[in-house]
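Data card: per-record layout.
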Amino acid sequence: MRHALAPALLATVFALGLGCASEPLGDREPGGEGSAGAPAGSAGSGGGSNSMCSAALRQAVSLVDEVAATPVEVLESSGAELTLFVDATAPEGPDTSPWVYVSLATGAKLELTDLEALTSRNWDLGFKRASIRTNGGDSGPGQGGAFKVRLPWGSVDASTLGDQAVPTEHWFDDECTLIAEAVTGVVTTFSGWDEYDTVTHVLTPADAVYLTRGADGALYKVAILDFYSNPDGSAGRTAARYKLRVAPLP
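The structure for this 250-residue chain is written out next.
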């Protein structure tokens, strides 16, 4: 079964509503200082991840104060275009393993704990099992977000955006109650990247490209090529090993 939250945790999220009065996230008090020195949750910090909903956020996406041990590798590069391998298997389980944070500009893994990532603008995408989140809105302090484009890779460029705003991560209402689906949990701007076979329980990437805004506002196009990749990029059988195609949009 694909899900962003363990069923028991998801049930707790809906039952409690995860209001703003819950305990602070780690050592960071709600309204404390972010890494850029702006009050956390302010317009200057660029997102709700440092807001009064911080405790609800920690439960909603299972944040862990550790750095992910699984690898990220650049498999190929052609000019500025990269093919990446991202191991998001969360070997200790989805509720106790940290997210894997990636820079779209370099394809590098960021050695950040989940708590450090809340105030870092260095990462663009976070991965854990079948979930992908951007660095913006309720997910991080950056300008990140994404939307799906049903066009061939070569047809997607900066003009594809037009005058549209890139959707950002919006997971809570004004009372810090989680907005989620019963099966998938938190709905991110990358939700729907897969086509799920209910018979084989295999996830196949949708035939689409994600026009993605990085944490610093730069635009990229991202395609998910495989969810069962081997570390060398060949097709494998282990889930949550992504093969991605990434290119900047000047």
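Known properties of this structure: The helical segments are 7-16, 54-60, 114-117. The first helix runs from residue 7 to 16.

See the next section for split statistics.
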